[in-house]
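Colleagues,

For the teaching module next term, I've prepared a clean inverse folding example: a structure given as tokens, and then the sequence designed for it. I'd like students to try predicting residues themselves before seeing the answer, so please don't circulate the second half yet.
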């Protein structure tokens, strides 16, 4: 269970826009939306990062796939 919300970021994807969620909203996912989360934590030699996605059953998958591709490419360039 992830309990340190200082290093958890969650975004709702709306078309091609990434909207950050406040900590109180980060545990509420809706079936019509898509989300990206990033969890960073201290590793042995450097900061480690876990990135994940959640696609709502009634969400528009095509928009999400386009956005997630560019998001992940930007993460890899850091």
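(Answer key — instructors only)
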């Amino acid at each position: 269970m992830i309990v340190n919300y200082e290093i958890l970021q969650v975004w709702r994807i709306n078309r091609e826009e990434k909207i950050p969620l406040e900590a109180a909203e980060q545990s509420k996912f809706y079936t019509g939306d898509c989300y990206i989360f990033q969890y960073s934590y201290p590793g042995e030699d450097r900061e480690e990062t876990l990135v994940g996605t959640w696609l709502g059953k009634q969400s528009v998958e095509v928009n999400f796939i386009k956005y997630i591709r560019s998001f992940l490419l930007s993460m890899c360039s850091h």
